[in-house]
Structures are given as structure tokens and as C-alpha cells.
Task: inverse folding
């Protein structure tokens, strides 16, 4: 399993730039599936759990960054389309 673990280790642990959100989410899903294996030794389960928590935090940060970049296009008077910042607390924006 050590070779598999090294191959699936998130790139964020190897460098400063995190992997794409989709790749992190897929690895997180795989960890959840592995943790569901009742035959998994406790030490291995703890390693996977720690990796999953780090990935979860990374995904959460990536989602917050993406939310901050989201803009809503609205049609202004005169037919011009303008970008406005996304207001997460605005119930009409959902």
C-alpha cells in the first residue's frame, strides 16, 4: 500500500500549489470509500483520516476562493451587461 499511498498523495503535500478541486474531491471520495472498509487496520485508517481532513480543508478553501470570484451579470439600463460581485448573503442571488 505504500507505493499506492505515494502515488495518490495529494500534490499539495508535495508542492505549494494545490491540485485542482476536482482531483482533491475525487481523492477525498476515495478516502471515504477506503475508510468504509471494516478490515482496514487502525493505523492505516488514521493516516487516511488525516489525509482526508487536509483535503477537506483544501477543498473548502478552494470553494471559498471560487465564491469570491463569482460575478453575477446583470442587464443595466440601456441594455448594457455589467458584472457585479456575488453577494452570498443576498437571497435573490441564490
Result:
Amino acid at each position: 500500500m505504500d507505493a499506492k499511498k505515494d502515488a495518490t498523495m495529494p500534490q499539495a503535500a508535495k508542492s505549494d500549489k494545490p491540485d485542482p478541486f476536482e482531483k482533491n474531491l475525487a481523492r477525498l471520495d476515495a478516502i471515504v470509500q477506503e475508510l468504509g472498509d471494516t478490515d482496514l487496520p487502525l493505523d492505516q485508517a488514521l493516516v487516511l483520516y488525516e489525509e482526508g481532513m487536509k483535503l477537506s480543508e483544501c477543498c473548502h478553501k478552494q470553494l471559498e476562493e471560487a465564491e469570491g470570484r463569482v460575478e453575477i451579470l446583470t442587464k443595466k439600463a440601456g441594455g448594457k451587461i455589467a458584472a457585479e460581485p456575488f453577494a452570498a448573503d443576498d437571497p435573490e442571488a441564490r
